[in-house]
Design a protein that fits this description.
alpha/beta, pyruvate-formate lyase- activating enzyme, Arc Repressor Mutant, subunit A, 2 domains, 9-stranded mixed beta sheet, 3-stranded antiparallel beta sheet, 17 strands, globular
Length: 367
Amino acid sequence: MTNKPSALYIHIPFCEHICNYCDFPKLQFFAALADQYLIRLKEELTALQIDHSLKTIYIGGGTPTALNDEEFEILLKMVWPYAQGVQEYSVEANPESLSEEKLLLLKKYGVNRISLGVESTDDRILKILNRRHTFKNVQEAIANAREIGFDNISVDLILGLPQVDKQMLLKDIQNLISLNVEHISCYSLTIHPHTKFYLDGIQEVSDDYTRELYDLIAQELKKAGFIHYEVSNWAKPGRFSEHNLTYWKDNQYYGIGLGASAFKGKYRYKNTNSITEYNAGRFLKSKELVTYDDDKTYYIMLSLRTIFGLSFDEYEKRFGEDFEKNHKESIARFVKEGLLKVENRHLIPTYEGMMILDTIIVQFMSD
């Protein structure tokens, strides 16, 4: 718990348009708002006084590429001093705003991974989502990125969208595989209050149907050589998201920008979701002391999301307890049921286990 954070997350809340399902801290792009935001972002970044090397940087949103070229360069220039020697430097982008100019700026300032918001490969469904790109835009953006020298590209897909049946989802997956990307994230559609989907009365699909969709995706991506390394994430060998593994290993990280979270020392921080507050220089919304029990819960819950699993040795070093001994009966039951396996002193979820993680975690919490 005394190690310094090795990851930095930066939130850019601006979007060219607001998607019908989105609940992230975001707002329509206005240059004047964005200019002031970048000034405050630099203040918050400087105040962190990062005096050591970082392993990963991730600029997310919103849509970082919604910034105009001048603002985009101001952002990347601001981060440049912290990007020296980082292993992985990711920036999220939308296909329609990932111009050649922006790609060249990303390359110039050391970004080596692009995360592209695709969500669907069906142009009719994209319109329902209020996305402004087409699948052709996705293909063009990836081709342009490859030409400029990017060799680590991730795409996102949303499951359980309205009017998308299994056959259409299969087509989506085949289309994504055809892009020859290194990483694919698949998330279930969640209907949040105040989004257009919520106001239109659109319902989430059932858990059983969601499971069927995951099974379909897992089967197709495995055939295509992807490793299912985290509940919602698949990657080619050696292309796991190092930044996101920081969260899943329950390691510390910096987070700046609207609505951003951070984990430093014994505290978890959450920034304001109000652009008015943020642009006035009032960044922090809450600061939570992570108790011993909280930390254990986070560690168990997060580490069991990945194929790396929970390390018995690390758990004992961190909490002074023998996890294997304290949860002997539950571990034996879950192993027998094919939900967990024990390898090299790690407790690792199987695919079946990943699909019902909540049940497993609740049991460990109540042992």
